[in-house]
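Hi support team,

I've been running sequence recovery on a batch of backbones for a student project. Most finish fine, but this one hangs at about 90% for roughly twenty minutes before it completes. I'm not sure whether the input is malformed or the queue is just slow. I've pasted the structure tokens below so you can try to reproduce it. Let me know if you need the job ID as well.

Thanks,
M.K.
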């Protein structure tokens, strides 16, 4: 297993440009892998059901749904009891169901970031991935420079094996380890 530097692109043409530039920078065809990363939940890693392991963000969302559903159901039942003289004996049940549904939604959103991911755990977004196997710090720096020049998003550092142009042990469920932005590092050094 070695080091891999990878970046995500929204367009296939940009990924092809990155591949071409990596080859111009001295990397060989065997070191570079290009593939499409499906949206989370659509990674067919098991014979039935796609992703088996849920992302960290999904686990947090489920806790939020449970808490929100319970709170919403309780509030809805109380409102339903108050509405019983107008609606009838089903009012508490209907109130609890509606309250639980609204609570589920609110609880799910309360545990996620604006983009739907967990705030403490960066997740991989779908798109064209370009990955390059590196063996030295100079190669790693060159790969990062090329990916930044072509405007890759979510440039990451990972461990893995690229053989014959295929990232053989890539697992989209593993944590994303983003490469630090050099401008952020320079700002931190000045402080």
């Amino acid at each position: 297993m070695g080091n891999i530097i990878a970046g995500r692109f929204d367009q296939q043409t940009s990924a092809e440009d990155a591949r071409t530039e990596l080859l111009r920078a001295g990397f060989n065809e065997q070191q570079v892998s290009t593939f499409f990363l499906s949206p989370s939940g659509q990674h067919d890693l098991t014979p039935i059901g796609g992703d088996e392991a849920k992302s960290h963000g999904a686990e947090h969302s489920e806790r939020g749904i449970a808490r929100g559903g319970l709170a919403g159901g309780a509030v809805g039942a109380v409102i339903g009891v108050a509405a019983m003289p107008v609606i009838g004996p089903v009012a508490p049940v209907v109130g609890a169901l509606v309250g639980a549904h609204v609570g589920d939604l609110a609880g799910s959103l309360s545990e996620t970031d604006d983009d739907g991911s967990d705030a403490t755990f960066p997740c991989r977004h779908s798109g064209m991935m370009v990955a390059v196997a590196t063996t030295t710090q100079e190669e790693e720096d060159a790969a990062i420079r090329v990916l930044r020049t072509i405007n890759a998003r979510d440039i990451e550092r990972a461990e893995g094996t690229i053989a014959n142009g295929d990232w053989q042990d890539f697992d989209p469920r593993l944590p994303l380890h983003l490469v630090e932005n050099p401008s952020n590092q320079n700002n931190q050094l000045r402080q």
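--
Follow-up from support: It reproduced on our side and the slowdown came from queue contention, not your input. The chain is about 45% helix and 20% strand. No action needed from you.
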